[in-house]
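Case study 2.
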Amino acid sequence: MDPCEVVVAVDLGGTRMKCGLVAADGAVLHRETRPTPRADARDGGRAVLDALLETVVELGQKARAEGHRVRAIGVVVPGVIDAEHGTVGAENLEWVGTPVLAELHAAVRAADGHDVPIVLAHDVRAGGYAEFRQGALAGTTNSMFLPLGTGIAAAMIVDGSLVSGDGYAGELGHSKFIHGDAAELCACGQWGCLETVASAAALARRYTARTGRTVDGAREVMELLAAGDPDAAQVWQDALAALIDALVLYTTLVAPTRIAIGGGLVGAGETLLQPLREGVHARLTFQREPEIVAAVLGEEAGMLGAALMAWDRAVADEEGQA
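Prediction:
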């Protein structure tokens, strides 16, 4: 391939890192997946951070070895990001106020002898930004990306802008929708969060709790649902009811015209989407009704969003110097 300008993009997940070298026109010149080490509380998730730093440095070196110029780096991670200080708190990575941005700058500087612009952002917001720029939310000004995976968080587009809330916005999965004896303790410390009933992890956990039978994740629960298993049907109905509550609340507050559902559960297709559409429609009165569609960028959404954010930073820096 001919040498060109690229950005390094990395989407750090709990089990895998999805990485790429992306040109200004959006072409992914190189993509790869690397394992994320198991997080260990005893070292504050240091192994995960070291693997991330190594990945970013090696991708930059690969780009330069092929004659490309690295304009910027985009890294997206789960958890709560303090945008002012560049620190991250992420339970599944064992990070508590970890100075990820400063560590990235130091690693790149040590490897290359100079700094490049680095964007650190939330993985779901990055995925939503990619869907907004070139996916299922393109052409909207008020919309939401809601991936349903191990956890639940939302990327919110309001009046044409991605809402960050200084790194705290979009934690819809930690809104309380389950009450009374049905409420379960969430990892965040609150009882009855949406994530405890409607995430992919919750489906498997709740099915096992009902039946005593261990299942191979949400995928097997959906297979049992298709086969007519009544316990799978009840777990699924509980998840749908909570999701409908969440979508109605969000619609009432923010008035999106389109909601794109992503994550592993969207693989259920219309088994998921049609009940959500019908449930939301039945509950709305005066509110503007949103389209509810499947996200289209799949597992690459976070990495592509990281690349788009990195290019935005590179262009803004260049214009600021002009």
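DSSP finds nine helices and 13 strands in the chain.
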